[in-house]
Each structure stands twice: as C-alpha cells, then as structure tokens.
Amino acid sequence: MRDNAVERLFSLFTSSDRAVAIAGDLAEEREQRGWIWFWLHVVSVACALWRSAATEAPLRVLALVLAGLALLSAPAFGGVAAVFLVPQLMDSPVGWIALPFFWWGGALWTGASLVALAPRRGMAACAMLAVAGEALLIGFGGPAVWRDPSNTDFVFFCTTGLLATIPLLAGAAVARRRFVIQRPLSQEQHQ
Amino acid sequence: MNYNEVQMAAPVNLGEFEQLVLLAILRLRDDAYGVTIRAELADRAGRTVAPGALYTALERLETKGLITSRMSDPTPQRGGRAKRLVTVTAAGVEALTRALQAYERLLDGLNLVRGAHA
C-alpha cells in the first residue's frame, strides 16, 4: 500500500519528488526491517529534513519566526481584547468562542502567510514557532495551572494557545501544497 | 556547471561524511540511490548511517553542484514510487580528488595504514 501520508509529511520540508523518493527508499527497506523501523525512520527523516531546512539559513528562518510572532500578535491581542475589554462578553458563550476564533484564525493566517512569504523555509519556521510556543506555554502555563486548576479562565487561555499550533501548521501545510508542491522542482529550488 | 566554471569557482571543502558519500556514489555507478548508498557505506566503511543524515547530505551535495539526480521509473517493491538516482558531477570528482590528495600528503611518511606508526 502506498503511504501518501508519508510523502505528504516529507514534502512539507523538501521538494515533492525528493519526498516520493525518500518514502520509496523507506518502503523498500520496510520489507526487511519491519513496520517499527519504518515509522521510527519516517519520524527521524522528517525531523532531519526540518532541521536541515532550518539550519541551512538560520538567520532567514529566525527572521521568519520573528515575522510569524509579529503576525500572530495582532489576532492574539484582538482575541484578548474581545474577551476582556467588553465586559458583557465575560463568562458568556460569545467570549468563549471569540478567543479561539481570533487565535486559531490568526494562527491559520500566519502559517499560510509565512509559507507565501518564503515557500522554501516558511514551513520550517512555522514548525519552529509551534515548538517554541508549545514549550513556552507548557513551561510557564503548566505550573500555574497545576497550582490553581480552578482558574478556568487561565486554563482556557492555555488550552486555546496550545491548540493554536494545529491551525498554524495546517495553514502552512495547505499553503505549501498550494504554492510549492504543485509547482515544478526547478522553480522551487530557486526560492 | 561547466569545466571553466568549476575552475573559476572557490574550492569546495568536503567533510569526512560527504567524502564517504561521494565515494559510495562513484562505486555504485548507475545504481546509486538512498538504499544502495547506505548499504555500500555499511559494507565498505562499516558506517551505519541514519537515513535522515544521508538525505540531508545528498540535498546539500546537490545544492553545492557536486552531484546531480534523476528520477527512475516507479517499481512495485517501492509501492509504485520512483528512485532518485544520483551521479557525481565533474565538480564533485574534483572536490573529492582535492580532499583525498590532502589526506595523501598528510599521510605521506606516517605509514599509518599498515599500523606501523613510527
């Protein structure tokens, strides 16, 4: 069975024909080495491709991460403002919907924008932004939630923030598929 | 990249792993792709190479213009996927030769290969 998911995963960080060839190599060795070896190496190859895309031009990727933070900040503050600056929204269903709407919508837009800005490295920058964001939220928010789990507002903020990585990566993946993968390799290599 | 451009360009320095990969590709001739390169490195150099390390090295070598690649026809044992066959370019051969000559000059008189370092 052809694992299109594996090809799609690799093609987030490299050209589509390279992704097909790498997935084919792993599938060829899977017959001898088994499924566990296959999936472990799918993850390790994806991480290696991500690291390579990020470290080839570290300053450019750092600039993209900072651009992503700047792009995220507007909807992030918009979401907080929508919840806290309108007292009627506090503790109402609209308030609970407004924050994820702003944050997740902003994350989706940021992911797509970074890939549109830099088709070759935008995905790597988004993944870095997602990992850094998760680490910060877990590092700072986790202990606070542990100390006071009854603070539902804070738990809600942290959960919404943690889940924002999904639309961030989804936006980047959709944009990469649209802007990069459907174009010939020769065009992508010059990005 | 033609021969004159190779001569004019700044010399490319190769790391030890890149040298091994280029040598493996040269040995494999027309059948050099991810699986066979890893097998060749394991058989001849005793190096177990992680696939991720090899693919990023191949991408780096191709970006430097030291190898070129082409896609083969899809095969059933690969789930209908094509192989990415690689070959070493003239620039790759030159960079490898330069690196090996440097080793030779440094090894000259040491007799390390026979284990009789004086």
Polypeptide structure, described:
The complex is a heterodimer of chains A (191) and B (118). By secondary structure, chain A is mainly alpha-helical. Chain A folds into two domains: 56 residues; 133 residues, no CATH class. Chain A has nine helices and no strands. The longest helix of chain A is centred in the middle third of the chain and has 27 residues. Chain B has 118 residues and is mostly helical. Chain B has one domain: Orthogonal Bundle (Arc Repressor Mutant, subunit A), CATH 1.10.10.10. Chain B contains five helices and two strands; from the N terminus they run ααααββα. In chain B, α2 crosses α3. The longest helix of chain B has 18 residues. The termini of chain B are far apart. The chains are: A mainly alpha (191), B mainly alpha (118). Chains A and B meet through α2 and α3 of A and α4 of B.
Q: What keyword list fits this structure?
A:
A: 191 residues, mainly alpha, B: 118 residues, two-stranded antiparallel ribbon, 5 helices, 53% helix, 8% strand
**Uncertain regions spanning at least 5 consecutive residues of chain A:** 184-191
Largest sheet report of chain A: none
Query: Which percent band covers the strand fraction of chain B?
Result: 5-15%
Can you write the helix and strand succession of chain B as a string? HHHHEEH
